[in-house]
Amino acid sequence: MNSDGLSEFLAVSRAGTFTGAASALNVSVAHVSRQVGRLEARLGIKLFQRSTRSVRLTTAGEQLRKSSEKISDDLEKAFQEVSNTQRKLEGRLRIASMSGSFADQVVGPALNQMAAQHPDIEIEIDFSPRQVDILSEGYDFAIRAGPMQSSGLIAKPLSSRTRVAAVSPDYLKAHGVPRHPRDLKDHQCLLTNAKFWRFSENKKQLDVMVRGRLSLNAGPAILDACMRDLGVAYMALAGFGDAFATGAVVPVLQNFWHRDRSIHLVRPDRRFSPRRVDVAISHLETIAKRVEAKERAELEAIRSH
Questions:
Q1: Using one digit for the tens of pLDDT, what is the confidence trace for 180-204?
Q2: Are the C-beta atoms of 147 and 264 separated by less than 8 Å?
Q3: Between 35 and which of 2, 5, 161, 260 could a Cys-Cys bridge form, CB atoms 3.0 to 4.6 Å apart?
Q4: Beta bridge mates, 143
Q5: Residue 83: helix, strand or coil by DSSP?
Q6: pLDDT tens digits along 87-135
Q7: The domain spanning residue 233 has which CATH number?
Q8: Do the Cβ atoms of 215 and 232 come closer than 8 Å?
Q9: Smallest Cα–Cα separation from 197: which of 253, 130, 265, 249?
Q10: How many structural domains does the chain have?
């Protein structure tokens, strides 16, 4: 990259001055100016409009910047991959994760698998509903559910979940079948911490206000209440365990269940993370995809009930 002037060109485009570019590259201003000049001469185009105080990309310069940034990123990734293969995987991982069915099905198995394959890795997992401060508390990444707020960190979708509505057979006999989410106003709903339940209708979100005399924040407790004929449960499929298979609960409102990308992996800038972090994330993504595929098959079977 240095010999053809692209590194210097990119540094100037990022810094906005030749002096700033020279400082970033730890070279002289004359070297940067010479390399950019040679690049312009070779291409036969002007890349910058120069003034006494700053430089501005020309249209051709902007086009080259966009293409060169991708090349630079690809080379950096290639160099990193080659370097990583030569390094032994070791060190400590510190991860914060929500608890619940996703943690049981994906997070625990994925990181246990990694620990078995890499004996020199130490892994600490904090299963807690608390939203940790990743940077100040020294976590490598966190796994969170729900909408992401702007935090200066990178939030990557890790998995989607389908919320499933169900009741016990005896509840159904006593209270009838809700045909539409709005019918829930006439039913006891097993609440979590939300006043609205989100459904899908004609590929659009439908938020319905719900009511109930029980408010629970744990999947096992919601399932137990549902099987005791206390109301309508609406939660991720995994929370029902084998209750559908055994007939302890039956599905309702199948055409309105909502699926969204509600589980994210939140991390600092990936360019500065050690290889063990990327390997851990790869394990998580692999297990998450496997669990999603299994869930899709189970959902089809339940919907056809």
A1: 999 999 999 999 877 889 999 988 9
A2: no
A3: 5
A4: 97, 265
A5: helix
A6: 568 889 999 998 888 899 999 999 999 999 999 999 999 998 888 888 8
A7: 3.40.190.290
A8: no
A9: 253
A10: 3
Domain boundary among 60, 85, 110: 85
Biggest distance spanned by C-alpha atoms of the chain = 85
Same domain for 238 and 268, yes or no, is no
Q: Which two tokens stand for residue 191?
A: 């609440």
Question: What tens digit of pLDDT does each residue of 151-183 get?
Answer: 668 888 888 888 999 999 999 999 999 999 999
CA distance 148 to 144: 8
User: Which residue, among 219, 224, 193, 194, has the nearest Cα to 208 in the 3D structure?
Assistant: 194
Residue-wise pLDDT tens digits, 51-83: 767 788 999 988 888 888 777 777 777 767 666
Do 33 and 145 lie in a common domain? no
Note whether residue 68 is domain-resident: yes
Percentage of the chain modeled with pLDDT above 90: 46
* pTM score: 0.62
- Looking at the structure, tell me whether residues 131 and 46 fall in a common domain: no
Q: Which domain holds residue 66?
A: 2-85
Cβ-proximal residues to 301 (8 Å cutoff; 6+ apart), any chain:
none
H or E stretch at 159:
strand 154-167
- How many CB atoms neighbour CB 184 within 10 A? 23
pLDDT digits (tens, 9 = 90+) for 1-37: 445 788 888 888 888 888 888 888 889 999 999 999 9
Cα separation values, 283 from 32, 235, 300, Å: 43, 25, 27
Cα–Cα distance measured from residue 152 to residue 303, given in angstroms and rounded to the nearest whole number: 40
CATH code of the domain in which 34 resides: 1.10.10.10
Q: Is residue 305 part of a domain?
A: no
Residue 96 belongs to a domain: yes
Q: Are residues 109 and 246 in the same domain?
A: no
